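>> received
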Amino acid sequence: MNTTILRKSILGIAGLAFAGGIAAGPLHTTTPDAGTSAVDARPVAAVQADKPTAGVDTGKLIPHGVQGAQSRIDLDTEQTANAKAIIAATKKTGLDERAAVISIGTALQESKLQNLGHLGDRNDHDSLGLFQQRPSSGWGSPEQITDPEYATTAFLKGLRQVDGWQDMALTDAAQTVQVSAYPDAYAQWEQQAADLVTQHWNS
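>> returned
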C-alpha cells in the first residue's frame, strides 16, 4: 500500500472499530472481543448517486427497504475497482445481486471498500482486507484475505451458512457472518451498495 492510500485509509477510517470479523472466523461465533471502540456510524456527506444500469431487478436489491439514515461516500478508482471485484466474485460463486448488495454493504462498513493492510496500532487485532477478516480466526492467510476475490468468496461462504439470509435485512445478514460488536452499523450502507450493484452488475 503506498503512502497516499495508507494516509487516506487511516484518516478516512478514524473512529471505525474494524469490528467485522474481530471475533468470528468463517463459522458462527457468539461473543465479540472486549475493548473494541465504538463504530462511527454517523451519516457522512451525501454525494450524487450513480445512474442505475438497465437489466437489474432493483426490487430484489433491497427487498425490505433501507433501515435508518443512509450514509454515502464518494468512491475513488481503487474503491470502485474493489466494488467491481466483489460483484465479480459474487457472480462467480453463483449467487445473485442481493448477495452482492450484502457483501458490498459489509465492506463499506468494514473498510470503506479499501483493501487495507495492517495499520499498526490503528489496526483491530489482525483484521485485514475489505471485510476486515482475521487470519487468527480462520479466515485465511494475510495474503489470501487481502485478495478481494478470496475475501469475498470467504464472506459469501459464511453467508450461505446463514439460514434465510435472502430474506434478512442487510445488517442482520452481515452481522450473522461478521459477529461485529456494533451490529446495526451495516444498515447505513444498503442504498449505496444497491446503487453500486445496479451500476456494475452487467458492466
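>> The helical segments are 3-12, 58-61, 77-92, 97-111, 142-145, 148-160, 170-178, 190-200.
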